[in-house]
Amino acid sequence: MNALLWKVAVEKFVLWMISMERSQQTIDGYQKDLKMIGNYLAKRYNTQVFIEDITTEDLESYLYMLKEEKGYQASSRNRHLHTMRSFFNFCIKKEYLTRSPAAAIEKVRVQQKERDFLSDEEADTLIENIDHELIQFVVKVLNMTGLRISECLNLTLHDVDLENKRIHVRHGKGNKDRFVPINNHLAPMLENYKSHTRVRTQSNYFFATKKTGRLSPVYVNRVLGETVEKLGWERKITAHTFRHSFASRLSRRATLGDVQKILGHSNVKTTSIYLHSTYDQLEEAINTL
């Protein structure tokens, strides 16, 4: 078994992910984490490291550094641990290693937080106060479809099928495609936007801009943050909050399996966290017994 430098092993891992058609988002995330880990190990050993020389103690030290020096929350540290496990499992599968130094490290227990969501009135108020016309419409679409912001902004003209009233989400999370129905209230809005409001541009993106051809998720979230501040709300609201809000509303009207399909979750456990109720709803339910 030939000794393999960390950098070389990471390059092989990335090529393998590409060959397995992992989403670009997944590949970018793994590369970012592995680069951070590699830099830490090189600094710790004062040289480029071979994967066979990496110990469990090295990886535990790295995770401790993320907590104490960088202030990473438990969920973020668990993500780095997941990256480590995936990488070293790949190395074992390819027979670059015989054991994984990450195998003995346990995940940090993460306290499950209640998902933040907006009531119908709050969502309407926030949307009405967005000054940017295109972003205002994008947020309306997020609120009525449950799309992830990246999925929404990556839609092309071909993906929004107004004739059959459905949106084709291509290469969503986990590199999976799915179709999301367009409800009867949203359909005429999309038609009007496409026919009358959308800027004239060579860009094929549905939500196109004249200057760059498309919106960025960072820009949308920045405008949302500014709107929340303008309203004087003491809350952190992002584009993803509207996905939570949509899921919360849908879960009261559809089966868990239907919600899972529309949101594009691979695991029903992920969907189940959206089945929350307000305290008033719980109180009302108890009083009916």
UniProtKB/TrEMBL annotation:
- Among its keywords, does the record have NADP? no
KW DNA-binding (keyword) present? yes
- Among the record's GO biological process terms, what is one? DNA integration
Give the highest taxon in the source lineage.
Answer: Bacteria
Which residues lie in coiled coils? none
The record's SUPFAM superfamilies line, in alphabetical order, gives:
DNA breaking-rejoining enzymes (SSF56349)
A Pfam family recorded for this sequence: Phage_integrase
By what name is this protein known? Site-specific recombinase XerD
